[in-house]
């Protein structure tokens, strides 16, 4: 990936297995978000290809990604703050049906309402169902975003720094949620705190200056001298 004359990513090649929980880590400016944006289709690479289940998805528009079963949630919360937690997830669930009949009114989707309740339960937000999203704690808003991403029933869930700005307690809850979500689908997350993902991921990719510095199991990464020197002095 090039931005003008600046090469943000180079020689990046990997694949992700089904139901794998993989973290992309690396220090600030390593290229993690750029890689994430390419994987999620927000950014078209200057060269190279992205394949999903053998299909070339490199040049596809964003909505095609959702249809293929790829969902993402961002560093910055993306919820409708005036709507309740339940309404936010319900709207997301309805999006799945909309393309089949977008003239139907929202009241015609009882299944979306039930689905939203089930998803709120899943992410631990059921007690706050009717609260405006803007009044939820930061960690709860992030959980709400995950519920909204799950409403698309993704086979691949991409999470960009899912614990950004969270308290230690909120972080623990989110990590447990991510672990449980990865039992049913592939989860790729971007994180700059290495320690956080060591305990839950099967594989880590370490980016540094836009290239893969290392790729392997948490044990392999922990034992890697180059990784250690890059992270020296960091948490
Ligand atoms: N749209 C852009 N135009 C120009 N340069 C960019 C653009 N996006 C990213 N970069 C540059 O590419 C490099 C990698 O940035 P990226 O945001 O992918 O890193 P990161 O690992 O996600 O960092 P952080 O942990 O700080 O979020 C940086 O040097 C950044 O300045």
UniProtKB/TrEMBL annotation:
It comes from the Bacteria. SUPFAM superfamilies: P-loop containing nucleoside triphosphate hydrolases. The keyword Protein biosynthesis does not apply. GO terms for molecular function: ATP binding. InterPro entries: AAA+_ATPase, ABC_AA/LPS_Transport, ABC_transporter-like_ATP-bd, ABC_transporter-like_CS, BCA_ABC_TP_C, P-loop_NTPase. Pfam families: ABC_tran (PF00005), BCA_ABC_TP_C (PF12399). Keywords: ATP-binding, Cell membrane, Membrane, Nucleotide-binding, Transport. Residues 1-234 form the ABC transporter domain. The keyword Cell membrane applies. This is ABC transporter ATP-binding protein. It comes from Ramlibacter alkalitolerans.
């Amino acid at each position: 990936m090039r931005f003008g004359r600046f090469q943000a990513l180079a020689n990046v090649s990997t694949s992700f297995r089904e139901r794998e929980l993989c973290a992309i880590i690396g220090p600030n400016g390593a290229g993690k978000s750029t890689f994430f944006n390419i994987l999620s289709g927000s950014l078209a690479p200057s060269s190279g290809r992205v394949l999903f289940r053998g299909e070339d998805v490199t040049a596809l528009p964003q909505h095609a990604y959702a249809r293929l079963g790829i969902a993402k949630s961002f560093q910055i919360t993306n919820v409708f703050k005036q709507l309740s937690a339940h309404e936010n997830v319900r709207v997301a669930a309805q999006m799945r049906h909309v393309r089949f009949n977008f003239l139907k009114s929202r009241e015609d989707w009882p299944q979306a309402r039930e689905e939203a309740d089930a998803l709120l339960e899943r992410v631990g937000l059921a007690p706050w169902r009717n609260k405006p999203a803007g009044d939820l704690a930061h960690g709860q808003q992030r959980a709400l975003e995950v519920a909204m991403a799950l409403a698309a029933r993704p086979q691949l869930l991409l999470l960009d720094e899912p614990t950004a700005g969270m308290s230690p307690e909120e972080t623990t809850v989110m990590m447990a949620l991510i672990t449980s979500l990865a039992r049913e689908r592939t989860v790729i997350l971007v994180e700059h705190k290495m320690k956080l993902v060591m305990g839950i991921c099967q594989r880590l990719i370490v980016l540094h200056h836009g290239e893969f510095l290392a790729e392997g199991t948490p044990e392999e990464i922990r034992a890697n001298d180059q990784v250690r020197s890059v992270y020296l002095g960091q948490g």
